[in-house]
Design brief:
Largest sheet: 6 strands, antiparallel
Radius of gyration: 31 Å
Helix content: 25-40%
Strand content: 25-35%
Strand order of the largest sheet: 25-26-27-29-34-35
Shape: globular
Structural class: alpha+beta
Number of helices: 16
Length: about 700
Amino acid sequence: MNPFYIEQKRIELHSLLPQLSERSKLIKISDFYSELILSDDRNLINAYLFEFSLEFLSELKKFNCIGLPLQITEKLLAQITEISIYFNGHELNQDINNQIERIEQELDTLREVLYGSHSSSIKTEKISFPVLVRTTNVESNNTIGSLESVTIVIKKTNDEDKFILVPSSKEINEDFIEQIKRSFLFALDFFGNNKKFSKYHEVLIYFQNREAFFEGSSHGVSLAIGFIEELCNLYNLNLCVSIKNNITSTGLIDIRGKVLSIKDEIIIAKVELIFFSAIEYFIIPKANESMAQTKLDELKTIFPNRNLKLIPIENISDIFNYRNIIAIDKKSIFNKIYFAIKKNWILLTIILLLISIFYIKWHAELDSNPKYFERNGSYIYIKSNTGKLVHKFFFQYEPFTHMLASSLNTIISIVDVNNDYENEIITAGTIPQEEDEPNRIACRDKDLDIVWEYVFTDTISSPRERLKPYYSHKILDTCTINNQKLLAAFANNVSSYSGAIFFLDYKNGMRVGPTFWHQGHVIEGKIKDIDNDSRKELIFTAFNNGLEKIVFGILPLDDIHGQSPSTEKYMFNNWRIANFKFYSLLPNTDYNQNLNERYMTSLPGSLNDFKQRSLFSIVLYNKLYSPFGGLEISIDYNLSDIDVIVGSDFRVLRDTLVVNGKLNYPLTDTPEYTESYKNKIEFWDRTKFIFYNDWIKLKTSMSKN
């Protein structure tokens, strides 16, 4: 791609961003990054990638799925996920990945709503109204909106009514303010001539999503309900009025509470916005019912199970006839006492604040209980719950693994092993690296005194050799078996090929239960119940030296005894093959074979569990120092849906050899290539290895039985 084209796009983006709404900024930056990535020019990508990185992350943090059609968010998420790969090793990498995971969770929630499995645990803010944000002519034609949440605080004053809006802006028009005043007057009239009420009030309205500055007055219904609820609390009335969850409204009201109609194009856009949210009831003007229902019926042809009901009203008083929307109850004596105390909140707050400040300062100074760890250069910092540095360990990380933050979990863990509310530090290998530090698993108390230590010394043999018992040690995960809290660990033979997974009692470091042996070093693992049958599984990745491939395996946690399959001379003497739930061989590539590499490699931190998508992924690398130079293999929890994703550098490296005639077509990032690789993956059927198509047939027959 011509660098001048990218430069022109960069200049255009700079000029556009100040004119765009928040979501449009994110979309435009993502579009620019996608064009940049398509260049396949690493130097060009590095030159332009980070210029907009801070604004990209800022807009990513503000983004939510509400109001956007499903396919728009899915497309944007896929785009951002591809972009995130290029931030590997960058200081923003973790923040970007955290936001991607958050959006994935929000998207899963939205799918639940659209497909009708709406959970009662999904809650929206109680006082809200849909907002259509003003857009410029440089934005897309899609409706841009959000669900504006409001917090209301009302106080008594002695001089005049005051309305304070947060955030404040000169852009607020008179109609907007007038509608707030009308809503408040209606709320006062709702209670009649109540002698408890002050003549004047100060009303603070906090717009949570900062989308308050728009043209229109359709917030009247929502604010009137909110004002009534807050006045009940302010005056500690016997009557308690509250709006329930997952309800929103639109419409302006007059001084008598009549709900006035809004423009057809506005109600259509707002119905669509609310449809793609967790809202269950949408209060609308009665005059707009026909148009709103037509739009809702149109949307339900796509998502027929979406549970959204329109509540048309002519007067705001009509709402109080819907007890599934508004709760009206007498306040209990306990609530009255609570609100009486609340009136004297200033003195109480000052006292509690002083106590809190003193306690926090005192606790922070004295807190030496290890709580979490983080890496800083060549050191691991052990910190307390208050962030105080408790200990500092030096460690020499392997090349490239410092980019994989989760790899630290294989060498250090912080846990309360004896339930005394003081955490211990579990370390594996030679952490901390001190003079003559032995390779072992060690448990230290908060003062670094040894509680227990363990060295793996099992011996084993195969037809080719007797393996000497000198092993490196790593942490795999934690689990509980028969009410006993255990540390799952693995040990790899330093001078040969054996790897072993075993369990230690957290309290005393004693070996517990069976051992699993592997004909090649274990890389990492996790423990979880992947099929919701109340039986946990051991998921791991490893090398298989005899078969010369990376493996991904799954064993029932309560039956891990045995060894993995391999070639005859690598099989361990007098050990049966374990009862695998899943064991796959991930093949080498023609690119690696061209480089005379024995097999692809993987690293601690490369095994990912994407819970929201119910799948694992394993990242395979072609070169130790190239995080993009390989493949990502994803496997769903059902162990049948396999996907192959091509890394960007690997695509460039392999395609260069293909174009130069050193490797055969097809090109790398094509369905033909990924399908070809997938069909070479081998699966253990408990007697032999079979290929992908036969594995699917086996899974299908097993599910039928």
